[in-house]
Amino acid sequence: MKIKFLIASLFLLIGATAPLKSMAEGEIRDLRVMSFNVRHLEGIDNVIDASRTAAVINRVVPDVALIQEIDSVTDRSGKKDQMAELGKLTGMFHTFGRAIDFGGGGYGIGILSRQKPLDVKRIPLPGDEPRLLLVAEFKDYVVACTHLALEEDARMESVKIIAAEMKKYPGKPFMIGGDWNATPSSPLLQAMREYFNIITPQTPTFPADKPVECLDYIAVDKDCVPEKCCGRLLTGTASDHRAVSVTVSF
Predict the structure, then answer these.
(1) Which CB contacts under 8 angstroms, 24+ apart, belong to 78-83?
(2) Which terminus of the chain, N or C, has fewer Cβ atoms within 10 Å?
């Protein structure tokens, strides 16, 4: 049984926040996680710019960044390893999860982390376009990244797979984030709430310049409610999605 905590607060911040010490330093139990659909580093202006995307991540100073729509040595991205680029520009370890072969390379999701993962899993998820659950285990917590399918039946089937994976880590907080291709009132979110608490602001994240839909989330398993939780929505046009982040205290 996981240790239960009390929620002290959940509120939205817009703008910059002061950097936290990383859990890697072993001095505090705060954890900052962000999720960002980066559209293969292409902004609203249709320009691919790794440094611009990295600047958004560096502004948050996350312990973990969950990345969706990332290329690996594709033709359209100039044969560059985009996760490696982001890792170098942010000073973080990078982990790539290939969902499909694309454009002479791969396309999928990734995780940037201050600590090196103890273990990584790449679990297929259903969809007309194959999807993936990327899971990284650390000493004190587990994080998962996903970009769920456009089809509702595939998304609903994915919930069962995600929940089953979460249950394999008793005793550790399990946080999951990504572009879920579903709005807060959707059946997908109702199903996810059976296992997870959504801890980011459920305000529009897409399209980035004039958002009208909330598609991007971070959640924590229900058996591990943070003592303190602060969600945040970031503005900007480095991608067609806005990034979300959360700082939690366990």
Answers:
(1) 78/48, 79/104, 79/105, 80/50, 82/38, 82/40, 82/41, 82/50, 83/110, 83/112
(2) N
User: Which amino acid would we find at residue 94?
Assistant: H
Would you tell me how many other CB atoms lie within 10 Å of the CB of residue 117?
Answer: 18
3-state secondary structure of 202: coil
Which pLDDT value is given to residue 8? 36
Rounded to 5 degrees, what are φ and ψ at 126?
A: -75, 160
Strand 244-249 to 228-233 pairing: antiparallel
The pairing of strands 64-72 and 12-13 is unpaired
d(CA 202, CA 218): 10
CB 79 within 8 A of CB 86: no
Pairing of strands 12-13, 228-233: parallel
**Which residues on neighbouring strands pair with residue 109, listed in sequence order?**
68, 97
What's the rounded Cα separation, in Å, for the pair 63 and 92? 9
Q: Flag residues of the chain having pLDDT under 50.
A: 1-28
Tokens 């790539």, residue located: 96
pTM of the full predicted structure?
A: 0.89
Cα–Cα dist 234/241, whole Å: 10
Classified as helix, coil or strand, 53 is: helix
Residue 14 token pair: 């817009």
pLDDT, position 224: 87
Q: What is the pLDDT of residue 5?
A: 36
Determine the Cα–Cα distance for residues 250 and 246; give it in Å rounded to an integer.
13
